[in-house]
Amino acid sequence: QMSNPFIYDTGKRSPYGCLGHEVQIEHIKAYVCRPSFFTDKAVIVIHDVFGWQFPDIRYIVDLIAGHGYITICPDFFKGTDPWKSTDHWADFADWMKEHDPMKVDKETDVTLKYLKEQCGARKIGIAGFSWGGMAAHHLMLKNPQLAAGVSLYGIIRDSEERYDLLNPTFFIFGEKDHTISYDQITLLEDKLKQYCKVAYKIKVYPGQVHGFAQLKPEDMKPEDKPYIEEARKDMIDWIKQFI
């Protein structure tokens, strides 16, 4: 049930001074941050419903780039409006029909081409958050060019083809996420055990709500901070293991 996917008030997010820059790639814009040294390793970050310009997601892009990856967050909404905190959650299902996280293949291909041809990337992974977590799960089933993936609190849609992952994938969840039940996580675990032929990992972080891992330091509650930092470290460690 996606009646209210985000508890936190997006209108009260602290501003963020970005380290990267924006580029135009074919029909989409993207936010890119690169490390200070040359690398042929890259990570595509897939934003949540609040889009590629949301400060929290740009903070994550910069954070991953700081670990030595060319990091890019393309606008998977292709210039259309992201979900806004002023919108009504009753309309969310209709909005989702127009913004399907399973229809990200074309933009991903455009981004992969850019990373390979313009940035010299040879090994590329993805990390997706919420809406982007669903998109990352989809892409790890469909795109063999992605060497590793992290899906953070992407709602799980149960169907047999959801479990035969092409490359190592890590699933991150919050224990108190009201959009994903514990039963769904258990089901995911059971089905991956049955169908998945590559490395995978599932981890649930105590007391954490939907969207927890994106928060910037000044927006974290002290009791959540250790879990947020742990989830980010786990995400980076997974990427480093395979990319």
From TrEMBL:
Q: Which GO molecular function terms does the record list?
A: hydrolase activity
One Gene Ontology cellular component annotation held by this UniProt entry: cytosol
Q: Which SUPFAM superfamilies match?
A: alpha/beta-Hydrolases
Under Pfam families, the record lists: DLH
Q: Which InterPro entries does UniProt cross-reference here?
A: AB_hydrolase_fold (IPR029058), CMBL (IPR042946), Dienelactn_hydro (IPR002925)
List the subcellular locations. Cytoplasm, Cytosol
* Domain Dienelactone hydrolase, chain residue ranges per copy: 28-242
Q: What family does this chain come from, according to its entry?
A: Belongs to the dienelactone hydrolase family.
- Entry-linked PANTHER family: CARBOXYMETHYLENEBUTENOLIDASE HOMOLOG
Q: What is this protein called?
A: Carboxymethylenebutenolidase homolog
This chain's source organism reads: Pampusana beccarii
